[in-house]
Amino acid sequence: MKNLRFAFAIGDDNLIAETKFSDASMIRIYEYLFTEKCLNFISEEINPVFEIKDHDEKVSILIDFLSSNNIDLLVAKKYGIMIEVENKYFVPIVVSNSSPQRVVELITKQINWLYDELELEKKEHMIIRIDKGVFKYKL
Predict the structure, then answer these.
(1) DSSP 22
(2) Closest among 132, 95, 114 to 17, alpha carbons compared
(3) pLDDT in tens, 81-93
(4) Please, which residues have CB within 8 angstroms of residue 92's CB and are 6 or more apart in sequence?
(5) Rounded distance, CA 43 to CA 60, Å?
(6) Within the chain, where are the H helices?
(7) Does the pTM of the predicted model rise above 0.85?
(8) Who's near 105: CB < 8 A, 6+ residues apart?
(9) 132: exposed, middle or buried (C-beta count within 10 Å: 0-12, 13-18, 19+)?
(10) Would you call 80 helix, strand, or coil by DSSP?
């Protein structure tokens, strides 16, 4: 199994951002290592589209940034209209918990569901909601 890379939308308070993924001030990158069965912190980056208003420019820059960091899955509380583009490249995960550490624990428990969704050859990925369990739905 290939390792999975996650991008978490992080706010100024170091919690999962209350804003849409593209409006978060920071993006925290994690990688799940199947050999170690854990999700490891890789880096925290300033969101390159945080202050950009033009939708098309925002989409292009964000997709390029996430792709250049080999991101597979996005983690946020909210997504905006960009979800229609984002779910073509990445698996979007919706969480309700604000604690990045708690979300890491939840993701680790559900990693096989996430891997399965990523490996399906589809034009658009399902949106996955993780709370106490996993719920998949189409946009």
Answers:
(1) G
(2) 95
(3) 888 788 888 999 9
(4) 21, 73, 74, 76, 79, 83, 86, 125, 127, 128
(5) 22
(6) 55-68, 83-89, 100-109, 111-119
(7) yes
(8) none
(9) exposed
(10) coil
